[in-house]
Amino acid sequence: MGKRDWRKLDESDVRVRPGKGTRPRSKRRPEHADAETAMVIGVDRGRWTCALESGVIVTAMRARELGRTPVVVGDQVGIVGDTTGLPDTLARIVRVEERTSVLRRTADDTDPFERVVVANASQLIMVVALADPPPRTGFIDRCLVAAYAGGLEPVLCLTKSDLASADALLALYTELDVPVIVTRSDEEPAELRARLADTVSCLIGHSGVGKSTLVNKLVPDANRAVGVVSGVGKGRHTSTQAVALRLPGGGWVVDTPGIRSFGLAHITPDDIVKAFPDFAEAAEECPPGCGHLGPPEDPGCVLDELVPDAAGRLTSLRRLLASRAGIDDYAD
């Protein structure tokens, strides 16, 4: 076509480049109404092991539309794709249901990065040895704080009672009404087994306290590695990642790696107080930013005045608050 006089051009001479599609783009994602519900029972290098409600165990990857949505052990998820559970098959996690509880921790009290240990557990079983290694109340207090803040019921499980008495330790937690289970290495943990039935429970504790030994008794085919206590009184790490194990009588137990630190940087004093109904309402009368520790740390705290008949529980509560603030005997 030869040159045209630009003065004689009209709209018919304008060429409009067609779009890439016949329909406008949409940000709507598929609803996956046919997705099967499953529970995440293990995580390993970008692959999630999931148990379907039918009992089938499948391996899944996170769907692209989830982006970097965190998926942890205990999460209830929706799965599509190949859900046969056959070798070398791979399904997709397309949604993560809202969590009913979350156990979080940080590396230390200054670390801003939260690590979700387990989701949707109803109980936190704090496994503590009465000897070899000796119990550390700072660790127990921090676990209590994390449980109260995360919506889990804390349960204190004392092991190795054949080596030392539990009386002195139990006296410290009487006012908190924490359920206690005492076990021996030479007996079956019948009471603990009954406590875990038909629930999702998380076991946490230092290495060497007998946690893996308990798991092997509760789930005979678990084959969790059992370590020994070192000469300096610290256990060796025998579990390397959290894993949910199906209990023979129904329910799940989540075995977590033995830990040396339990940071609480993500938890505020008010988060702890909310777990105690008799103090939560009174705490609203405290000045903003109150740590509820009382004088001299918090001279404006009014908990002593407004709840005068609960001095024992207030002492226990303040021990937990002091643990959160790093004012305790907890150390590696």
TrEMBL record:
Main location per the UniProt record: cytoplasm
Family: Belongs to the TRAFAC class YlqF/YawG GTPase family. RsgA subfamily.
GO BP term, example: ribosomal small subunit biogenesis
Function: One of several proteins that assist in the late maturation steps of the functional core of the 30S ribosomal subunit. Helps release RbfA from mature subunits. May play a role in the assembly of ribosomal proteins into the subunit. Circularly permuted GTPase that catalyzes slow GTP hydrolysis, GTPase activity is stimulated by the 30S ribosomal subunit.
Binding site for GTP: 159-162, 205-213
Residue ranges with Basic residues bias: 17-30
Name under which the protein is recorded: Small ribosomal subunit biogenesis GTPase RsgA
